[in-house]
Design brief:
By secondary structure, the protein is of the alpha/beta class. It has one domain: Rossmann fold. The chain contains ten helices and eight strands. Strands 2-1-3-4-6-5-8-7 form an eight-stranded mixed β-sheet, sandwiched between helices. Strand 5, helix 6 and strand 6 form a beta-alpha-beta unit. It starts with 29 loop residues before the first helix and ends with a helix. The mean pLDDT is 95. The chain binds thiamine diphosphate and iron/sulfur cluster. Thiamine diphosphate binds next to strand 3 and helix 3.
Length: 295
């Protein structure tokens, strides 16, 4: 079949690549993540000026600057509240939030459940490298027990946070995990998360080659990753998703863990509904002013 002009995609991945040169270390997993985001945005087909990308602070949080979307490299741990405010004020924008595992599950960990219970239509991408990269290799919330770092010379004594269980148990409607070792898979997953109507979480196993655990490289991920599709995982089954998610840190499952078949309304839709209901019954402004003017 010959393709017509109408069938041509509106954008290519390079339309979303900014002129800023990434300053990540050579081999950092985040290079692959930004490539996957370019591909996903091209497939979505919305122009860069209709996209807003909010991050916290960290190596991974530099990512909005490497795209042509509007970007805000904000405050450590605060990507989600800022992204929610933005989505409420400008619901027509496509809003992405991103950051590291430290940003999302340490300092920003308290924002995750509250975002999930509101369910704004935001896609949240966490580049999970199990370390604080930007500040030169301290323990992060997802560091494995026993990991030796600059802040745990004899090995970490704590169990890691499991980001997948965390978001699933608070009721997130879309939960997936990917790795830049499978770029097409990661791009497709991010595209699906963006298209999902509501809060969507993508945990990306993105290796820190400078401070991360030894052997954490794209090559190792390629060998370790296992597709959820290959075991006929049912992504509409929350209990099956929770069961699979338990192996976080031991097995590298990639794909969609959970996709709620009946997603709840978004926060923006509920707020709009409430505003409309209130404005219908509101007294005319003059009558409200009269109440104050009367003695
Ligand atoms: C309020 C505040 N506390 C601490 C810091 C220092 N800080 C900057 S980035 C960071 C952690 C980075 O780790 P992560 O979020 O996992 O991102 P990565 O650099 O690994 O991508 C910390 C502790 C800060 N910038 N602001
Ligand atoms: S320190 Fe780690 S996370 Fe940061 S740019 Fe380098 S490899 Fe990437």
């Amino acid at each position: 079949m010959t393709s017509t002009l109408a069938e041509q995609p509106k954008f290519s991945p390079k339309d979303f690549k900014s002129d800023l040169k990434p300053i990540w270390c050579p081999g950092c997993g985040d290079f692959g993540v930004v490539q996957a985001i370019y591909r996903a945005l091209a497939a979505i087909g919305r122009p860069a000026h209709e996209i807003a990308f909010v991050s916290g602070i960290g190596c991974s949080s530099r990512i909005p600057g490497y795209t042509t979307a509007y970007g805000f490299n904000s405050v450590h741990g605060r990507a989600l509240p800022i992204a929610q405010g933005l989505k409420l004020a400008r619901p027509e924008l496509l809003v992405l939030a991103a950051g590291g595992d430290g940003d999302g599950f340490s300092i920003g960990g308290g924002h995750v459940p509250h975002t999930i219970r509101r369910n704004p239509d935001i896609t949240y991408i966490v580049m999970d490298n199990q370390i604080y990269g930007l500040t030169k290799g301290q323990l992060s919330p997802t560091s494995p027990k026993g990991l030796k770092t600059v802040t745990s010379g004899m090995g970490s004594l704590e169990n890691p946070v499991n980001p997948l269980m965390y978001v699933l148990s608070y009721g997130a409607s879309f939960v997936a995990q990917g790795t830049p070792a499978d770029l097409p898979g990661l791009a497709a997953m991010i595209e699906e998360a963006i298209r999902f109507p509501g809060f969507a979480f993508v945990n990306v196993q993105s290796p820190c080659v400078t401070y991360g655990e030894e052997g954490q490289q794209i090559k190792a991920h390629k060998a370790a990753m296992k597709a959820l599709d290959s075991v006929k995982h049912d992504p509409t089954n929350l209990l099956a998703a929770l069961e699979r998610a338990q192996s976080y840190g031991h097995e590298l499952w990639t794909g969609v863990f959970y996709r709620n078949p009946n997603p709840p309304p978004t926060y923006e839709a509920l707020v709009r509904e409430r505003q409309e209901a209130l404005s219908k019954n509101a007294s005319p402004r003059e009558r409200i002013l009269d109440q104050f003017l009367q003695k």
